[in-house]
Write a structure and sequence with these properties.
The chain is of the alpha+beta class and 378 residues long. It has six helices and 18 strands. The strands form three sheets. Strands 1, 3, 10, 11, 15, 16, 17 and 18 form an eight-stranded mixed beta sheet that branches. An eight-stranded antiparallel beta sheet has the order 4-5-6-13-12-9-7-8, with helices on one face. Strands 2-14 form a two-stranded antiparallel sheet.
C-alpha cells in the first residue's frame, strides 16, 4: 500500500512540474512580452519617437562597384540569428559654418603650419577656395575658407628617397596626426577627442610603389584614419575604412616641411551634442530581407591582399557571409543638415576561383515615412 501511495505522489509531483513549466513559458515568452506591447501602445508619449526635425533628407551613399552582379547572401552570425537592436535612435543637428572675415587669415595660417608658403599660393584671396602648390614636391593644398574642408595631395609614386625606413611607428604617427589637426583647429569636438578611435597602417616602398608593412623597421610613411563615436555608436563615412579625418605622416626630421604630412583629407563637421529628436528605425528583419536581396549599399570591398595605400579595384564577389550587424551613424565629406543612423553589415566574401576578403554593406536605418523623396535627377 505504501508503494502505491508513493507512486501516486510521484505522479502528482511530475504532473505539477509539467504544469509549472507550461505556465512559466506561457508567462515569460507570451503573456509578458505582449503585455509590454499593450501598455507601450497605451503610453505613446513615453515610448514613441519624437521626430522633432520632421522629414529628413535621404542619405547620399557611394557604392563600390563589383565585377559581377547578384552575389548570394548568407547570415553567418554566431547564433545564426539577427541581433536585437533599438527601435529608435536620436538624430543630431550639424552646426552650419558661419561666415567670418577672419576665415581667410586662418586658412593662410593653417597653410603655413602645413609647410606651404606665400610663394606656393596659386589662387587669389577673393574666392571661397584657396590653393597652394609646392614646386619641389608637387604637393597641392586646397582649403575651402568658410566651410573649412582641407585636402593635401602629394604625388608619392617613386618618392622613396624622401622617406627614411624605420622613421615612423604607430604611436608616433597617431600622436602626430592628432597634434596637426589640433593645430589647424579640426580636432576639438569630444566625439573625436575623448570618444574617438584611430587606425594606423604603416607603409614602405617596394620599388616605386608604397605598400603596407607590419615591420616598424621598414616603415617610411604611416596612414592614420581618425573616427568619432556618438554615445558608443561609431560614426562612419562612405568608406568605413577611411576616416573623415585622414592623414599620412612622414618622418619628423624631413627637411621638406610639406612632406611631414604628404596627404590629408579633413572634413570636420561639428554637431550639436544634445538631441531630443528621436526617429523610428526600420525593423532589422525587414532590413535583412532588403540586404539579402541585393538592395543594400556595398560600402567597402577589401581583398585579402589589398594595399591600403592604393585605390580600390573592382573585385568579383559571388558569396557574402554576414558575420556582424550593428547600428552606426553616417557622415560624409559633404556637409548635411542632420547626422542620421544606418545599419552596418560586416562579413567576408568569396568570388571567382581564388578571390576572398572582407566586405561592408550599409542600409538606411530611419523609417521611410520620415525621409523626403529624393530630388529629381539625383
Amino acid at each position: 500500500m505504501r508503494l502505491v501511495e508513493m507512486s501516486a505522489y510521484v505522479r502528482k509531483g511530475i504532473n505539477g512540474l509539467l504544469i509549472f513549466a507550461v505556465l512559466y513559458y506561457f508567462f515569460v515568452f507570451f503573456l509578458i512580452p505582449n503585455a509590454k506591447k499593450y501598455f507601450n501602445n497605451l503610453l505613446p508619449g513615453e515610448t514613441s519617437a519624437t521626430v522633432l526635425f520632421g522629414k529628413l533628407d535621404p542619405l547620399e551613399f557611394k557604392e563600390m562597384p563589383l565585377l559581377n552582379a547578384n552575389p548570394r547572401y548568407e547570415l553567418n552570425t554566431k547564433d545564426g540569428k539577427l541581433p536585437s537592436l533599438p527601435d529608435k535612435l536620436p538624430v543630431y543637428k550639424y552646426k552650419q559654418p558661419r561666415f567670418s572675415y577672419s576665415d581667410g587669415t586662418a586658412a593662410q595660417t593653417h597653410a603655413s603650419v602645413l609647410g606651404f608658403t606665400d610663394d606656393d599660393l596659386i589662387t587669389d584671396l577673393k574666392g571661397e577656395k584657396y590653393s597652394w602648390r609646392n614646386s619641389r614636391t608637387g604637393a597641392v593644398l586646397d582649403i575651402y575658407v568658410h566651410s573649412k574642408e582641407l585636402t593635401v595631395n602629394t604625388p608619392l609614386l617613386g618618392r622613396s628617397g624622401f622617406f627614411i625606413p624605420g622613421s615612423i611607428n604607430e604611436e608616433e604617427a597617431k600622436q602626430a596626426a592628432k597634434d596637426l589637426l589640433i593645430a589647424i583647429n579640426r580636432f576639438t569636438e569630444p566625439s573625436y577627442v575623448s570618444g574617438g578611435k584611430q587606425r594606423v597602417r604603416l607603409g614602405h616602398y617596394v620599388g616605386q610603389q608604397l605598400v603596407e608593412t607590419k615591420n616598424p623597421r621598414e616603415a617610411q610613411i604611416a596612414r592614420v584614419d581618425l573616427y568619432r563615436t556618438i554615445f558608443n555608436l561609431q560614426v562612419l563615412g562612405p568608406d568605413p575604412n577611411k576616416g573623415l579625418l585622414h592623414v599620412y605622416v612622414g618622418a619628423q626630421d624631413n627637411e621638406i616641411p610639406v612632406l611631414r604630412f604628404p596627404k590629408i583629407e579633413a572634413y570636420y563637421w561639428e554637431i550639436e551634442a544634445q538631441s531630443n529628436a528621436t526617429y523610428p528605425l526600420v525593423p532589422i528583419s525587414q532590413v535583412w530581407k532588403e540586404v539579402s536581396a541585393g538592395r543594400g549599399i556595398i560600402a567597402s570591398v577589401v581583398p585579402k591582399d589589398a594595399n591600403p595605400f592604393e585605390d580600390y579595384q573592382p573585385a568579383r564577389v559571388d558569396r557574402i557571409l554576414i558575420n556582424n550587424i550593428y547600428l552606426a551613424y553616417y557622415d560624409t565629406p559633404k556637409l548635411q543638415k542632420y547626422l542620421q543612423p544606418i545599419y552596418v553589415f560586416e562579413g567576408n566574401y568569396v568570388g571567382g576561383s581564388n578571390e576572398a576578403g572582407s566586405i561592408t554593406i550599409y542600409y538606411p536605418a530611419i523609417s521611410g515615412q520620415w525621409i523626403n523623396e529624393p530630388a529629381s535627377g539625383s
